[in-house]
Amino acid sequence: MSREPDRQVNQDRRRFMGAAAGAVAGSAGGVGALAVGALGYTAADDAAAAPRTEPVSDRHRWGMFVDTAKCAEGCTACVDACDQENGLNLQAEPHGSNEAKWQNQRAVWIRKVKLQDKTSGHVTNLPLMCQHCEHPPCVDVCPTGASFKRADGIVMVDRHTCIGCRYCMMACPYKARSFIHEQVDQKLTRAPRGMGCVESCNLCAHRLDEGSASTACADACAAEGHHAIVFGDLKDPTSAVRQAMAKQPSRQIREDLELNTGVRYAGI
Questions:
Q1: Number of other CB atoms surrounding residue 130 within 10 Å
Q2: CATH number of 61-90+100-266
Q3: How do the domains of the chain map onto residue ranges?
């Protein structure tokens, strides 16, 4: 029997993968992410932004500094902004589901956490999201390469290759990832989502790839007048994030794991 049809299928697949590779941003682990442009996102909401014209590189390492002393009790501006930016506010509770179960399963990319000192009783508020580790455990355990780290330090999930095994969720010491349990009826083109996939904070990579050097959570925090979240390039000594870190001591959450996180906190 002739195998010419099989050869043709393989050639077609290679051409498809070759075309897709042109829209892939390089990562330290050798696994790329589909460029934002390939997902249909346009910067209509940011007229001043310009689409990326060169591959992601390790010249930058994007990260955050969080001053917990400025993180206000009861404020959810960062959470609300993240939900709106990434379409998480479009989630709808399935008909007939249990409210407590839904609240436990709905996707959350950033959450407010309270830490209480057992001796003094002092309470610290802080936003907790993916910490964008230099050595991410989620990437180490992913069997398909769906969890990967971009060359600029952003840890992401490729929804096209995620098989929903949730190994990454078990490996993450920050419980920063969510699994999509239900069918997604509404989503944004800049943040595609689908049932059976894992997702988490990506430091608003779509904004960065369109030329904007900010995140929704940092903007919202500043708009509220708190300025607890500072975003920027950790490799640039003149960046706002590096200047903020130079003014006071900061720490990683779970420093003992030696993950060299891209998110640092003052006051914990």
A1: 25
A2: 3.30.70.20
A3: 61-90+100-266
